[in-house]
Structures are given as C-alpha cells and as structure tokens.
Amino acid sequence: MWESRPAPTPALTGTELLRWYWTLAELSALAREMGLSAGGGKAAVTARLAAALDGLPAPAAPAAPAARRAGRQLTAPVTGATVIPPGQRCSQVLRAYFVREIGPGFHFDAFMRDYVAQHAGHTLAEAVDHWHATRARAAEPQEVGAQFEFNRFLRAWHDRHPDGARAEALEAWRAHRARPRD
Q1: Do residues 89 and 75 make contact, with C-beta atoms less than 8 angstroms apart?
Q2: Which residues form the DUF6434 domain (predicted)?
Q3: What is the pTM of this model?
C-alpha cells in the first residue's frame, strides 16, 4: 500500500506539497489561509506556496504578457474583406461568420485562436484559408498542456485501455491523484 495524501495545511513543507496532486481550489484556499496571493495559474500558486512553506522568498513572477490592446471589437456584419483589428477576441461575431463560411464543423481550436490573436491586419477570408490549411495538423493528436494533468492522465489511460469505460478511467484517476508523485 502507499502513504495517504495529507491535508493541505500550513504544516506541510514545500517538498511535501510538491509530492502530491492538488486542485487549484485546494491550493488557492491554502494560499488565502496563509495570507498569500491566490492569483495566477496552478503552477504559479504551487510555486508561491512551496516557497512560503519552506520559508523562502516568493519566486519572481513571470513577465506579464504584452497587454492585449482593448481596441475595438468587430461587430456584425462582417465579410471576408473585414480586417482583424488588434486585440480581437474569438467572439460570437467571428464564430457566426466562420460557421457561415466554413460550416457547422467550425470551432475555435488552438490554430484559430492563435491566428486571430496574432494576425491583426489580415482579413477574415485569410483566416478561413488558415482554417482549411491547418485541418490536417488539427486532426493529429495534440499535446495536452502540463497544466491539464487530468486530461493528460485520461489520454494516457485510454491509450493503455482502449476499451475501458469512463467509470474505470475515473476510478484510476482517483487512485493516481491519491498517490505521491515520487
């Protein structure tokens, strides 16, 4: 058998905190209990807590991403000649346009989110071309980011158990997260 997961309390050491899986909600609650900022992603909160639990200074915050300009957002009607403005979000106006042009299978995947975010000055027709040009790559399995540990676990579990049921996968996840990482 393995050891039991401790409660997330200020009595933990930073090393012990890092040995276990915690939800962001658990980490945020512990940070607030300790008077620390609970802001940021899971990795940032975990690093801040581990340092504080070990009596070390908080790690330097990563450089803030370039501020998204709060410029105007596109409003309907839009056409293929409409130019993507700086700071445009993946809005319902864009979704409606892309569904009209591409079909009901359109969705904002990583390729399209990145295109909209990084191609101010390009037209929506060029964005449609980008959608079609990226479909082969989009159909390939994409790496799941480390911050999505549950999704990574499920993908690996289903690769090992292709006929496994969801209930079995969730049971395996609960067992996995109850064990130390080392």
Answers
A1: no
A2: 76-133
A3: 0.59
